[in-house]
Amino acid sequence: MPAFERAIELGYRYLETDVRATSDGVLLAFHDQKLERVTDLGGDIAELPYTEVAKARIAGREPIPLLEDVLGAWPRARLNIDVKAENAIAPLTEALRRTNAWHRVCVTSFSSRRLRHVRARMRLLAGHDVCTALGPRGVAALRGYSLARPLGLPLRAAAAGAPCAQVPYRLGRAPFITASFLAGAHSLGLKVHAWTVNDATEMERLLDLGVDGIITDDIDALRDIMNARGLWATAAP
To answer: Is CATH 3.20.20.190 the right assignment for the domain spanning 1-31+67-131?
Structure first.
């Protein structure tokens, strides 16, 4: 929670987190499948009840936040939420329904199936369409489209209901986001968000190209760069 709070204090209004669910369906704002890398406890989150996971402390200090606590603490912030496992889908859609936060989130995943399930369950529970990014198939089609425009028709089908593509800024040494990739996405009305960009030079390159969003751990560097470009007041009203 202190990390989210600091981002808000700096002026950010878009937060990014992953979600995982405990064995009894409590939804956490947490990336790892297991506790041991960043907390003082061990074990697979999906196999542990929340009473056990609640004892874990990140870096030995901070408890793992619940997604609902993040949504509730900053009701004007928008959240990008990466669904890391199938068992997190039902708790996520329930949390969005209970908090009425469906209109201020964008859901993403490395699984196209998970994204379909989130959309379908949200419509069933609350009668709302929730924003989702392109799934892996859509991203692959978009990359192909940027190289060979005739693939545009299958891409439009894959992109139904998704206003954005969230992609790595590079694969190995090769840039993934290029001028042609952005042009292809923008021609289809899709915004492009780059992850996870912690290098200031890459931030500058991507902004020069016209990327629509940057996901970063280095929130100070990104704010300084956008401020120097006169973009910060627009980005964080």
So the answer is: yes
